[in-house]
Amino acid sequence: MKIGIVLYPTFGGSGVVATELGKALAAKGHQVHFITYSQPVRLGSFRENIFYHEVSVSDYPLFDFQPYETELTSKMVDVVRNEKLDLLHVHYAIPHASAAFMAKMILRSQGIEIPFVTTLHGTDITLVGKDPSFEPVITFCINESDAVTAVSHSLKEATYEHFKVTRHIDVIHNFIVPNNETKEGLNNTRLKYALANEPILCHISNFRKVKRVEDVIRIFEKVNAELPSKLIMVGDGPERYSCEQLARKLNLCDKILFLGKLRDTAHVLEIADVFLLPSETESFGLAALEAMAQSVPVISSNTGGLAEVNKHGFSGFLSNVGDVDDMAKNAIALLQPDQMMQFKENALAQANLFSLAAILPQYEQIYSNLVPKILR
Ligand code: GMT
User: Fold this and answer.
1) Helix or strand or coil: residue 131?
2) Which atom of ligand 1 is least distant from the CA of 286?
3) Can you give the pLDDT at residue 207?
4) Stretch 116-137: mean pLDDT, rounded?
């Protein structure tokens, strides 16, 4: 099948899922055309069956705001027509689903029928999408998509709750990509970041308000007071500065490392003992799943879809949003030597439920329902 994938190319979870999905589809023999404004962070090097079409946004002086959605729509029309795509799969509703609808209508006027699948990732519904100014467009595009998927049951429910959506939504969870690298030299790397007996706590995000990164520091302060440890912070965003200031104020600078953005987080996770994700809302929590896939148990809030990923008392613990005391208490409990190995094993077992092998056929099934003649 020839599939166009429209995505945000950044470090955000929706871009990661879309890119890894495209790579996996290409490895299975589908032809995949990524359409976005810069090269997706996780795309990596040259691979068979993968094509990348860049949307360039013109800088015409008349516009105070460049019309990205229009340029994206034109690029979708061009790629569908010239590469003879069978289907478009757009990740994140705004503005990808509305651009896909417009592209579909333009192509129909030219005698080309193209179905499009919309995957809802979270903030397009829970934060941005709830803004009343977006509501009519989002509702319309979801209802007009040929298929819609949400990354958790919780997100599906939130979509029905906040929008006048009447159509069916399939739930397809985020997934992990198998990592076959050997973990040689792990102890040496670990010793560069922490003393032999010091646990390493870790947080990875885009440092937006929704991630409650200051809670990460507060939790760490409490854990460190009882169990001397280290905290590794990965990522960057609007809240990083205030977070660094808090670390200085609490006199924890020699205990907390801010590494900034990393393309590949697996190597950091390999040396971590606990992953902290105290988000205000989280439709799924791909970062938590990626941690568990490296055998790192998760201390998280119990919001959104996190309970579908992190199992309380098994792969980690869940607490109410903002309850840093409970999160610290739970982190200390699972860092006890008699508990830690079990939680690490459980975390990996839980992550394996979301394997690529289990999730990929669910997307392929949706595609084949829309483009039956290709697969049958
Ligand atoms: O986490 C973010 O802020 C990025 C955001 C995105 O859209 O790129 O992530 C969302 O999509 C991920 C992939 O489906 C989910 O795993 C994240 O939970 C979700 N983020 C939120 O709901 C805050």
Assistant:
1) coil
2) 16
3) 97
4) 85
